[in-house]
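Continued from yesterday's entry.
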Amino acid sequence: KSSLKNMVLVLFTITAVSALLVALVNTLTKETIANTEQKNKDLAKLEVLPTFEGEAELEEQTKQIGDFTVGVTKVSANGEVVGYAVEAPSITKSGYADRIYLMVGFVESDGQTTINGIKVLSQKETPGLGANMTKEGNKLELSAVGKNPAEMTFKVKKDDASGSFDSLTGSTISSRAYANALETAYAGYLWAKGELDTSEEAIADAPTGASTTSEVADTPTGATVAEGDYANETEPEAQKGEVTNE
């Protein structure tokens, strides 16, 4: 018999059953999804480093930075170090939609460090604009691959003429976050090598407005490192579809 009471009861039953099914599916697929994500990360570690023969030996370590974790994997083969793969987020600069997560490969030769490869692990930027950072050979990637990170300035040229990064068209905020994630990765690499001074004295002596690896390594989540930080900036209209006013 149709009545308000019966209708409410049926609706409640349907909602409860639907919620139970969603929870069940989530439980059944959670482990599979986590395993898939880990496999993709493991593949990315090798993709950002030079090719080599033999079986890869992975030595992993992590550093907690605020609410974020930077993972550093030392990859060796046949007793020789191939390079370091570093998984890192943008910390002091968020992308237009969310944080940017990168896997960055660092290799050493003749006493010099070079960025061998970069792979975007996670981004939620605007398709056709900020999301272009995932495309092979994009401006951001070309600004860094093959370069010595010690000689780079992790800023986009639009903000600072001395910056090392050409920003993606109409996606300045996304580009800033990408550069910041790469700087975080470099800080993680230096930390793993024991070459990063994260003492309070070193941070206190850093020049005002400077964007240093020490600042990135020890800045709490959500904090800004200097006046002009764009962590909470709203992307201009150009990010939403217009590319003429980059």
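--- second protein ---
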Amino acid sequence: MILCTPTQMHADQAIKAMNAGKHVEVEIPLSDSWPDAQAVMAKQAETGLVCMVGHTRRFNPSHQFVHNRIKAGEFNIQQMDVQTYFFRRSNM
């Protein structure tokens, strides 16, 4: 199960999904509070299911630009492949 819902729903939904026996990928952030994040981690340890947090680009300005054009009917997208490269000038 992939959770791409508002942040405040992530922890509760992840726990419910694992209670239902589902592996879960949660869009970052995992939760909006440390106790909720710990509860998700405890549920994962209890169930042994995969519960991972992934990085999405929904707040990236370039992605919002495309999304807004699609919603406005200006773009008719049938398939879109996106690759992002991160270059660091120093090792952090």
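The two ends are 33 Å apart (CA to CA). The mean pLDDT is 88. Will compare against the first tomorrow.
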